[in-house]
UniProtKB/TrEMBL annotation:
This is YegS/DAGK C-terminal domain-containing protein. Residues 174-254 form the YegS/DAGK C-terminal domain. It comes from the Eukaryota. One of its GO terms (cellular component) is cytoplasm. Coiled coil: none annotated.
Amino acid sequence: MVVDVGTGNGMVKSLLDSAGEICSPSNAILAVIRGHTRSLDVATISQGKTRFFSVLMLAWGLIADIDIESEKYRWMGSARIDFYALQRITYLRHYNGRVSFVPAPGFEEYGEQTSYSGEPSCETSTSQQESLNMQQPGYLGSDVKLENMHWRTISGPFVSIWLHNVPWGSEDVLAAPNAMFSDGYLDLIIVKDIPKLSLLSLLSKMNDGSHVHCPHVMYLKVKAFVLEPGARIDDPMKEGIIDSDGELLARGNVTYKGNVKCYMAYDKLQITVDQGLATLFAPV
C-alpha cells in the first residue's frame, strides 16, 4: 500500500474507506505497520506483444483527457482536475469507436451480441518495446479462453469510457461504488450522448457515487474488455488519449503534446482480469 503522496491516490482511499478510516498518511503508514493484507485483482492490457498491468483504472475520452491534459496545470495541485474539467465540458469532445466486453452475470442486457474478434495485433515501436522489456520480467497475463465467452458490443460516439478496479478514483471521486478488490471483474462506466448541463451535474455527483444512477450512464461489471478507439467527431484528424492508472498509455494523432513516451499505439487493445493476483497491505 502506498503512502498518500499522489494527486488522487484512489487505491489508498479505497483501502482506508473500506475500513471506515480517514484517508491520511498516518493511517496509511499504520496499515503497513499492522501487516494485514488483502487480495487485489490485476488487469492485463494487451496489444500485440505489449503488456501493461493495471490495478486501478483505464480511461478513454473525457476522464482520460482531464487526467492527462491537466498535467500542464500541475502547479494548481488537485484543483487542476476541477479547473480543466470545466474547460473540457465547455468544449465537449465526442469520440468514434467501439467497445466489446464479456458481461458479469446480471449485466447481459447491455449492448448487442457479438463474437470475440481475436487478440489485438499492432506494430510495436522501438520505444514501446523497450518499455515492454523493462516492465515484463516474467508474467504475461491471463490465459483465459476468450473465444469461448459470450461477448457484447456497444458502438460510439462516446463521451467517456472508464474501467475501474476499486471504488475510488481519487480522494473525492467515488468512481465505481460497486467495485470490489477481488471479485474478478472490472466496473465499466460508459457515457455517450449527454447535454453539457447534465454532464456538469453528473461530475458533481462523483463525490458520493450517485453519478452511476444518471440516465445518461451505463454502469456494469465485465470480465474481459476490448477497446477500439477512434477519432473525434468534430475533427476526424484528431484522436484521443488512453490513460491507465494515471499514466499515458496511448496517444492518438494531433492530441496531447507531452514528452512522455507511450507504452502502446492508439489502436485496438484488450483487457483481461486475474482475480486476486496481487496482495496489498490493508487496515484490516
